[in-house]
Amino acid sequence: MSPAPCVTGLSRRRRILGLVFWVALCLLVMVIGSLWTRSSVGAWYQGLSRPWWTPPGWVFGVVWPVLYTMMAVSAWLVWQCQGGPIVPTGPLALFAAQLALNLFWSAVFFAMERPGAAFAEICVLWLAVMATTAAFARVKRAAGWLMVPYACWTTFAAMLNLAIWRMNV
Predict the structure, then answer these.
(1) How far, in Å, CA of 82 to CA of 24, rounded?
(2) I need a surface site. Which of 6, 7, 138, 161 has the fewest CB within 10 A?
(3) What are the tens digits of pLDDT across the range 80-92?
(4) Under a CB-based contact definition with an 8 Å cutoff, are residues 133 and 125 in contact?
């Protein structure tokens, strides 16, 4: 089923401000999450047994900014199609929920140093990401496709989280 055509009467200024908002929101979540990550990535994380397929640390520093930017553009596209609401509803509410869950995962895994609880949390996050991706695709196909790399990375992160938890029990 094709998404309905996106018709918006938003002014150019409002569209630009909307893009700035979504990018700023996603980057804020990224910065807060990275602060929690940095607090534990030293001694605690380095002391954990990790699977051989764990990427080097610099990969995360490259991948996450790209994913957060793609997520922001995806949300912006849906926001425009929905007429630029002030309060997120429907697919944008799902997006906000998964963004909060994304941030919470960093807190649980790194700040609280609880890989088992973080795995349970990332399973909920994964479901929220899949629901958001599907909901976005129903509004605007490009918005759904922009979420696919994030969905793939979340799947990989969940598998890595599970492996780390199991190796350190």
Answers:
(1) 20
(2) 7
(3) 988 877 767 899 9
(4) no
